[in-house]
Amino acid sequence: MKIEGIQFIAFDLDGTLLDSVPDLADAADKTMQALGLPGVTEAQTQTWIGNGAETLIGRALSQSIELDPALDPELHQRALMMFNRFYQEGGHKKTVLYPGVTETLETLHQAGIPMAIVTNKPSQFVPHILEEYGISQYFTDVIGGDTFPKKKPDPYALHWLMEKHCLSCSEMLMVGDSRNDVLAAQAASCYVVGLTYGYNYGLPISDSHPDRVLDQFSQLLDVVAIA
Asked: Fewer CB within 10 Å, N- or C-terminus of the chain?
């Protein structure tokens, strides 16, 4: 069943448009090895993604999704700087677009629907990645995890987009793979689509009760009413 009246779509990035776990895991693992600490696997990284690089590295240092309360803040910041460097140096060579992403974005673009990126990924990486994978031209706004004082699951970025583009909450759709995306949209009273193939800490996205649950990105065209 289509959602009528959508005038703007905000997309998460990692786990929604891009499978970036291999590169993130490589950078996190190199960071831990450089610090002489236990390494990090892709399987671990997949369950730790979603709250930004600082939290990801905190989880790697803690070897748990729950941050160790005794974690040394100085070590945490040093590890984060190392991670950012390793991630940049890696060149995102193992990251891939999910099937149907480019074609679906092109169809929505041709239909005149403006779109934005709202990710918790540090903003320094996002424009280059969008360019690298040939999808930067589809987005009017690119919002990273450090663009504003608050990031998802806070609705700050969605409220900002609605104000900038003169939208009502019923005209905005958030598309993501994580409960952070769903919670942000729900807090902003926007529609939200949850994708099952992403990360979401290893939990079913349906547990967060998005308005629609999709298994493939291209199914978004069955949800958004295009004039």
From this structure: C
Q: In which order are the strands placed within the sheet that holds 115-118?
A: 139-143, 115-118, 8-11, 172-176, 191-195, 212-214
Alpha helical stretches, state H, the chain: 21-34, 42-48, 53-62, 73-90, 101-110, 126-132, 156-164, 179-187
What's the mean pLDDT in 28-44? Answer: 96
Instruction: Indicate the annotated binding residues for Mg(2+).
Output: 12, 14, 177
Q: What is the pTM of this model?
A: 0.92
Q: Which residues pair with 57 in a beta bridge?
A: none
What mean pLDDT comes out for the span 32-40?
96
Residue 224 contacts by C-beta under 8 Å, 6 or more apart in sequence? 2, 3, 6, 9, 108, 113, 173
Q: Which residues are identified as catalytic?
A: 12
> Could you give the domains of the chain?
8-19+95-222 (3.40.50.1000), 21-90 (1.10.150.240)
